[in-house]
Design a protein that fits this description.
The protein has 261 residues and is an alpha/beta fold. Helix content is 36%, strand content 19%. It has two domains: 6-187, Rossmann fold (3-Layer(aba) Sandwich), CATH 3.40.50.150; 197-260, Helicase, Ruva Protein, domain 3 (Orthogonal Bundle), CATH 1.10.8.100. The protein contains ten helices and nine strands. The strands form two sheets. It has a seven-stranded mixed β-sheet with strand order 4-3-2-5-6-9-7. Strands 1-8 form a two-stranded antiparallel ribbon. Helix 4 (107-116) links the parallel strand 5 and strand 6. Helix 1 packs across helix 2 (42-49), helix 4 crosses helix 6 (150-158) and helix 6 (150-158) crosses helix 10.
Length: 261
């Protein structure tokens, strides 16, 4: 009997209706698929029934890897490692579809890593990912909302995001203490051309370091009081960080990159 490990943020999805919902979001027949954190293989079973061309799973837990190897034999490829150590873009030559019931304790880290490392030629066709609802709400949040912040700005830069469903704790074993949400991500065709995503990270980190205060101080810290940028982007320094739209942060990053180049 496999027990979920709290230290790895494990909550195994056991609800057949939700498992069915997940694999029907996008057609995976004859496609290459990656599953993050397959656990006991509940979702893996449903993925295999949809006849993907290739299935690769990434699982950190050694005991679970042993179980998966015994259960699936040669039906899938297994990487026994922390997903944060894996360069997903090197796993397949073709674009892949990614499924993941992400560990709650590192879900934002995983998503942020993928976004920061994205190049213009996306390595995936789509992401179908489960998050703690509180995190998902931050990912999809629009400006002028209390959930809006760095994660939303980063995630919406190159990705279209659709919330599929909220999921109750009794769909998992063990039951988490919070609701979860299923999100669907696809690459945007048009997005702001930022040279280095780390600059977007820097801009948002400085602006949201004190989200309740007006943006005058962070703006001056980055742009040294440059009025041209202010006038060009028509920014009111009396606003707070959550009052600026995604696009304004992308434009601010663009202007910052011009200044430092």
């Amino acid at each position: 009997m496999i027990k979920a490990k709290k230290s790895l943020g494990q909550n195994f999805l056991i609800d057949n209706n939700i498992l069915e919902l997940i694999v029907n979001i996008i057609d995976i027949k004859n496609k290459s698929v990656i599953e993050i954190g397959p656990g006991t293989g509940n979702l893996t079973n449903y993925i295999l029934k949809k006849n993907p061309d290739k299935l690769l799973v990434i699982e950190k837990d050694n005991k679970l890897v042993e179980e998966l190897r015994n259960k699936y034999s040669s039906n899938l490829q297994i990487i026994n490692d922390d997903v944060l150590n894996v360069n997903e873009s090197n796993l397949f030559q073709e674009k892949v579809i990614v499924f993941g019931n992400l560990p709650y304790n590192i879900s934002t880290e995983i998503l942020s890593k993928w976004i920061v490392n994205l190049r213009d030629n996306f390595w995936f066709e789509a992401l179908v990912l489960m998050f703690q609802k509180e995190v998902a709400d931050r990912v999809v949040a629009k400006f002028n909302n209390s959930n809006y912040g760095r994660l939303s700005i980063l995630a919406n830069w190159k990705l279209n995001i659709c919330k599929i469903s909220d999921i109750k704790p009794n769909s998992f074993k063990p039951k988490p203490k919070v609701d979860s949400s299923l999100l669907f991500f696809t690459p945007k065709k048009d997005f702001y051309k930022i040279k280095d995503p780390k600059n977007l990270e820097k801009i948002t980190r400085i602006f949201f370091s004190n989200r309740r205060k007006m943006i005058k101080k962070p703006y001056n810290q980055i742009f040294n009081g440059n009025l041209k940028v202010l006038e060009k982007l028509k920014i009111n320094l009396n606003l707070r960080p959550q009052n600026l739209s995604h696009d304004v942060y992308y434009k601010l990053t663009e202007e910052y990159e011009k200044l430092i180049s």
